[in-house]
Structures are given as C-alpha cells and as structure tokens.
C-alpha cells in the first residue's frame, strides 16, 4: 500500500488532534468526554471542514467499520484533490448507528462528501501502523521541510543584511552631503 503525501500529512495532524483530546493536564483519559463535547459542536466545526479536515474528522472517531480494506488502500494512494466520490466507496464502509445523524448533517454541506472520504481515510489510517517505507517517506518529507525552513531563514538573514548595508550606505551619503555643505559654509572638513 502506498500513501500519498497529503494523507501522510493529514495522518500526523489527525493523530496529534486525537492525542490532544486524549488526556487532561493530570494525565487522566478524557477522550470520550472531549469527543462528546466536540460532537455537540459539529455545526460550528463544519466551518473548518475544508481548511482543517483533521480537526473535524475526530468527531467521527470510531464511527467506521471497513468491509473492503482494498478500497481504502486505494483512497489513501490519492491526493486530497483526486479522491473517489463518497458514494463510490460508502457501500464498503459501515457507519456506527450513533454517528448516522452526524453523517447526514455533514453530507448536507457543499464539501460534505469530500470530507466524509477524508474522515473515513483518516480513521482507517489511524488503525493501521505505518510501514517502514511510509515512516521513511514521512521522515524524508519532514527533513525536506526543515531544509526549506533553513533556506527561508537564510534568505531572511540575507535580506536583513542587505537592508542593513543599504541603510549604512544611505547614512554615509547623508553624512558626506552634510560635510560638503559645512565646507561650503566656510568650515573645515570633518574626517
């Protein structure tokens, strides 16, 4: 199975979201309580569905049962913009009865079907360990991102240095012009 870059990134974000919900500051398991609270906020959360699907998808944590894993493996190989339609995969996914009303509410949204595919894929991935190849791919992408951050920082430093150099040149030019004016007024040149 191959997982697309977009799903690897979403997987990390989804796992982080679940981790944040799992325990309180004292280390107590509060996942059920927090998920119940999130589920009550579904109407508000739907506003974030397209921008941060992983933050909304947690409301459907443990709502799916996958009857044909090969279908989900195919979904995970796709980029988020090239996903199969929800209608084409939903026959292979059983929805828990407690989540039925939420799914209807989500599907009534303009991007609801797209989101349901994402949410199902995130939950499917959550229950599957990463393969060695996927871990290496994720690590490679994290290293690439760190390298890009380093390049951005170097560019910022270079731009800052160039700005600083330009400021020094302008200050010297002003000082020279001031000295020239003082000489014209009869004063000795200041060096």
Would you write up a description of this structure?
With 191 residues, the chain is mainly alpha-helical. The protein folds into two domains: 124 residues, no CATH class; 52 residues. The protein has nine helices and two strands. It has a two-stranded antiparallel ribbon with strand order 1-2. The longest helix is centred in the C-terminal third of the chain and has 53 residues. The protein is elongated. The termini are far apart. The model has no long low-confidence stretch (mean pLDDT 85).
Structural class: mainly alpha
Tally of individual helices: 9
pLDDT < 50 runs, ≥5 residues: none
Q: For the residues shown, what is the average pLDDT?
A: 85
Percentage of residues in strands: under 5%
Distance between the termini: 74 Å
- Write down the secondary-structure element order: HHHHEHHEHHH
State the total count of DSSP E strands: 2
Sequence of strands across the biggest β-sheet: 1-2
The overall number of domains is: 2
Largest sheet: 2 strands, antiparallel
């Amino acid at each position: 199975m191959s997982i697309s870059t977009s799903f690897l990134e979403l997987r990390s974000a989804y796992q982080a979201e679940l981790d944040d919900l799992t325990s309180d500051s004292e280390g107590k398991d509060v996942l059920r309580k927090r998920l119940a609270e999130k589920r009550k906020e579904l109407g508000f959360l739907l506003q974030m569905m397209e921008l941060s699907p992983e933050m909304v998808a947690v409301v459907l944590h443990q709502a799916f049962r996958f009857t044909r894993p090969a279908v989900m493996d195919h979904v995970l190989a796709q980029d988020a913009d090239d996903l199969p339609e929800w209608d084409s995969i939903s026959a292979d996914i059983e929805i828990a009865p407690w989540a039925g009303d939420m799914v209807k509410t989500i599907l009534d949204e303009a991007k609801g079907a797209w989101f349901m595919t994402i949410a199902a894929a995130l939950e499917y991935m959550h229950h599957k360990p990463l393969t060695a190849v996927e871990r290496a791919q994720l690590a490679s992408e994290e290293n690439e991102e760190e390298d890009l951050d380093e390049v951005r920082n170097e560019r910022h430093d270079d731009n800052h240095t160039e700005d600083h150099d330009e400021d020094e040149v302008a200050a010297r030019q002003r000082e020279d012009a001031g000295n020239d004016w003082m000489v014209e007024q009869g004063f000795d040149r200041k060096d």
